[in-house]
Specification:
Length: 226
Amino acid sequence: MQIDITHRPGNSAAKVSLDAGETITAEGGAMIAMSGNVSVETTTQKRDSGSILGALKRMVTGESFFLNHFTPSGEGGEVYLGTVLAGDMMEYQLDGPGLLVQGGSYVASAPSVNMDIQWQGLGKTFFSGESMFLIHLSGNGPVIFNSFGAIYPIQVNGEYIVDTGHIVAFEESLNYVIEKAGGSWLSAILGGEGLVCKFQGQGTVWCQSHNAGSFGQSLGPNLKHQ
């Protein structure tokens, strides 16, 4: 399997080249185009092991109910994958600590990658209260995730603070707490920052240049109502 990210960073797409018999599992609706010899199998969980519970758990993170599994026959084939919001995509090779991805940022992964949902608890209402669930990926193999705008890594060695709306994914070797941005709730709200995530330990956080929630709030009042 070979993954190439094209048209970065504003309008990225992932070209996945597969040998005969290889499979890539993708979020429902992510396929842009594919070779004519590629077959598609749709399930609610991993291939050959559908799970309604697993699909429902994914939905609370903002992902789709179904997963599609693309497999070429003959000489192999290719699949192009895209996302809803304009931005970047990246490949991450999972072979050690798991990866935690915000809802809506998972695109695809190898069948050897396990997907579950991690409950953050009421005390860790994540991403400015938008969701208390994260997608937990573990196992071995490539993962593709996306961002709104450009995506870039931040290496954490000790402590680092990131606005919750700009987090795409992070390695589970990191500990984190959610707290207000300023010294008081008033300053946090007036300053426009709200909640931030304080990471501690060693690992990587991937951030996005744009905040989807803020973009939606700014766009909403300008939409014409029929």
